[in-house]
Design brief:
This protein is 38% helix and 19% strand. The protein is α+β, with helices and mostly antiparallel strands. The strands form 3 sheets. It has a 5-stranded mixed β-sheet. α6 links the parallel β7 and β8. α10 runs antiparallel to α11 and α13 runs antiparallel to α14.
Length: 420
């Protein structure tokens, strides 16, 4: 089993409170003394995208509702600027590439990266800790952004050491080895704090009496594999600090089939009597995107997330009989899924995905619809798209969009209307 314990020098680096810190730096403010929140300041029910580190000492979480923010603090609420954050992320990645080659760098998210520095320690004549410290200082000096780093012999331990310990250390660096597995990794509880374990899996593991990572590590591996399949075996390996994946594996993963997707967090509870407004509005946006790019979809995925008071939800997909860009056809497919799986619980999230995309030249004739009728539909949809593109997405809306439960006008205004 010793050959499972690979020994590399892996860094996992995360930009602390990235969106909020960028906004502070842009305003020449200190993120550690400024009560700044990135959100839609016009909506009390909106979810905050990020909060400055200063606010976290007051228990303010990164993903909370605007109305939940403390009233006794003069909080600076600023709207998100995704293009700015992408630019800053690129600046930081350029810094990483001053130290390692692109083959030894994996971009995990807009604010987080893995670096394999194993082959660079002799070159720089530094330990992994010293090199991590240099990189973090370089990021701060160049961008004003504070980063945290986890160091480990594999991707897993580097990531978990950063998540669990680095942010609590003065130098923002944590270094774990295999000797730390029992003392540090095994103590992690609740299980959802462990990288790769979500709330649903946590409940399943708790039902087996597994409360800490150490409980998983000491559990029968074959029983986990029998219950959860390959995922169960991986859980056991990770609980024991074992991870054989390499950065080169991550960088060479096959590209997923392209799809168009849209999800929306709702600012109040919705039910079966009013969620149809939201579903149709989201489909309309996605179908405009299909037509703009001259695509048809052959697969639809639909998911619902219930309110935190209930938890859970569902996600299912259906293959379509014919490929289409028609919102009415897709709406009927979604309502079949919704009717079958909805449990009458309050809804707070809707997700829709359109997959198996093809060029619209391959459009097939519906057996139950004449070619003249289809051509008429296509012409009407194209005319509506043209008007919206020229005059804004809110210029033509169904009457249901004027109802209180609709969110489309507000979302169109938020993103400029012309490219909803």
């Amino acid at each position: 089993m010793d050959d499972l314990y690979i020994k590399r020098n892996i860094l996992c680096i995360d930009l602390k409170s990235f969106f909020a810190s960028v906004e502070c730096v842009e305003r020449h403010l200190d993120p550690y003394t400024t009560p700044l929140v990135v959100c839609d300041p016009t909506r009390d029910g909106a979810i905050t995208l990020a909060v400055a580190p200063y606010l976290k000492q007051f228990g303010v979480k990164g993903r909370s509702r605007v109305f939940e923010l403390p009233k006794n603090i003069n909080i600076l609420k600023v709207p998100p600027r995704m293009r700015l954050y992408q630019q800053k992320s690129k600046e930081v990645i350029k810094i990483y590439l001053e130290y390692v080659s692109s083959e030894d760098l994996h971009i995990y998210s807009i604010d987080e990266c893995f670096l394999d520095i194993t082959n660079y320690l002799k070159l720089y004549k530094k330990t992994d800790y010293e090199l991590a410290k240099d990189i973090l200082a370089r990021v701060y000096d160049s961008t004003g952004l504070t980063a945290t780093a986890g160091i480990g012999p594999n991707l897993l331990l580097a990531k978990v050491s950063m998540d669990i310990e680095a942010k609590h250390n003065k130098d923002n660096i944590a270094r774990w080895t295999y000797d730390d597995v029992k003392e540090k990794l095994w103590r992690i509880t609740p299980l959802s704090k462990m990288w790769g374990i979500g709330s649903h899996m946590e409940r399943n593991l708790n039902a087996l009496g597994l409360i800490s990572v150490g409980d998983i590590a000491c559990y029968d591996k074959e029983k986990l594999k029998k219950k959860f399949g390959v995922m169960g075996e991986q859980l056991w390996f990770h609980a024991n600090g074992i991870d054989l994946s390499k950065i080169s594996d991550l960088n060479n993963m096959p590209v997923k089939e392209k799809s168009y997707s849209h999800s929306q967090i709702l600012f109040k509870d919705y039910y079966d009597y009013n969620i149809n407004i939201i579903i149709y509005e989201m489909l309309d946006v996605l179908c405009r995107r299909l037509r703009t790019n001259k695509k048809l979809c052959g697969l639809i995925g639909f998911g619902i997330g219930y309110s935190k008071s209930v938890g859970g939800g569902f996600y299912h997909s259906n293959k379509l009989a014919i490929q289409t860009d028609d919102a009415n056809i897709l709406y009927r497919e979604i309502m079949h899924i919704f009717t079958r799986y909805y449990t009458h619980a309050p809804i707070r999230k809707v997700s829709i995905s359109l997959g198996k995309l093809t060029n619209n030249e391959s459009r097939q004739l519906d057996l139950f619809e004449s070619s003249e009728k289809m051509e008429e539909k296509i012409s009407i949809n194209n005319a509506i798209d043209d008007i919206k593109n020229r005059f804004g997405a809110n210029i033509l809306l169904p009457a249901s969009s004027l109802l209180e439960d609709s969110t489309i006008m507000e979302r169109n205004n938020k993103i400029g209307g012309h490219h909803a």
